[in-house]
Design a protein that fits this description.
By secondary structure, this protein is of the alpha/beta class. It contains nine helices and twelve strands. Helix 3 links the parallel strand 3 and strand 4.
């Protein structure tokens, strides 16, 4: 899941970025309305956290630009404007939720998760053969055995399961899970795929994560993976 934080106060922006990253999300941060408008037109986000008091463009104008896109991410307004009129105006103009500053991060995270679930057309629980992932409780099991994953490992696995049977390039995985662009040199995806394989594949006879030559990786049941031309890698 990729989140855009639009906040001109660096202290708050850093706080939000660290908290959301710790919860397993990829986070981009911008400090002006102009930057926000540019980002939402070039990058697909699952959620936008939007401050209204921006230095160049009013946040409500940014909201209108976001809502004019074909693919519209949910928007959570985070603002010091605390009057009923301000909240009503924000919601009427298309915001999906409105949280007043100062705020508790646990509440923001809970509201963000609700909006992310609402925006996902896929089920809250993902299943591939005997591998199960609970998106809400963030739990993974295989053959009814609990598997502990680090936040980034969970995010990669969720992304792969949501795209079951689809070959995913390293670029796609990095840009979806990390708040960085793939530079063609990093082996970070390969490292995390090895970690995932050690946890969800190595102890089980049926392997789920497959290498697709010349592309990247794919998660699927063996019969589908073979038909797609994937080659299973034995570590």
């Amino acid at each position: 899941m990729r989140v855009l934080v639009v906040e001109d106060e660096k202290r708050i922006a850093d706080f939000l970025s660290r908290g959301l990253q710790s919860a397993g999300y990829a986070v981009d941060v911008v400090h002006t309305g102009g930057e926000a408008i540019e980002r939402v037109h070039t990058t697909e986000y699952d959620l936008v956290v939007l401050d209204l008091g921006l230095p160049d463009v009013d946040g409500l104008q940014v909201l209108q630009k976001i809502k004019n896109r074909k693919t519209i991410p949910p928007v959570l307004i985070l603002s010091a404007r605390d009057s009923v009129d301000d909240r009503v105006r924000g919601l009427e103009q298309g915001a999906d939720d409105y949280l007043v500053k100062p705020f508790a991060f646990v509440e923001l995270l809970a509201r963000a998760r609700v909006l992310l679930r609402r925006g996902q057309p896929t089920p809250e629980k993902l299943q591939v053969a005997d591998l199960s992932l609970d998106c809400i409780r963030r739990k993974v099991t295989r053959n009814s055995e609990n598997i502990e994953l680090a936040p980034k490992e969970f995010s990669i696995l969720e992304y792969m399961m949501r795209n079951r049977g689809r070959p995913l390039s390293r670029t796609m995985i990095v840009e979806h899970v990390w708040d960085m662009d793939y530079d063609g040199l990093t082996n970070i995806v390969d490292v995390y795929i090895r970690h995932l394989r050690s946890k969800i594949d190595d102890r089980f006879p049926i392997k789920m994560i497959h290498t697709v030559r010349g592309i990247g990786y794919m998660l699927d049941a063996p019969e589908t993976a073979q038909s797609a031309g994937a080659e299973q890698v034995i570590a």
